[in-house]
Design brief:
With about 130 residues, the chain is mostly beta strands. It is built from no helices and ten strands.
Length: about 130
């Protein structure tokens, strides 16, 4: 499925209101709202199997706040936050089993501070430290 990234509707006006995009087979690919041609509020993205792929908010057409991504099995794959479409705050990734794989912080799209990696049993196996770039 090709994502519709246009701010304009079929009549040439700015998109406004509820918007849904579908895969070629008719299944739902994404759903959310536009406000004056910009994505706004909660958007949901779906896999071809109908499972939720990702959910998060937009403000002024940019990803913002907490987002969650899921695997085809429906299990959580990762969580993280955005500020004006840049990674920010705590991010976590999960193994297919659902166990935590790694976690750390971002600031302005860059890893900062301590990042921790865990084994399949949840035991800490690696720690790395990232310095904020000036």
């Amino acid at each position: 499925m090709k994502q519709d990234t246009s701010r304009f509707d079929a009549k040439g006006g700015l998109k406004s209101g509820v918007f849904k995009q579908h895969y070629k087979d008719g299944s739902l690919a994404s759903a959310g709202k536009y406000l004056r041609g910009e994505k706004s509020g909660v958007w949901r993205y779906y896999l071809r199997n109908g499972q939720l792929r990702a959910v998060g908010r937009f403000a002024g057409g940019k990803m913002t706040g907490e987002w969650k991504w899921y695997r085809e099995t429906g299990k959580l794959m990762q969580t993280g936050s955005f500020v004006a479409e840049k990674k920010s705050g705590v991010w976590k990734r999960y193994r297919p089993s659902g166990a935590l794989y790694d976690e750390g912080r971002f600031a302005d799209n860059r890893k900062i501070g301590e990042w921790r990696v865990y084994d399949v049993h949840g035991r800490l196996i690696k720690t790395t430290c990232h310095r904020a770039k000036k």
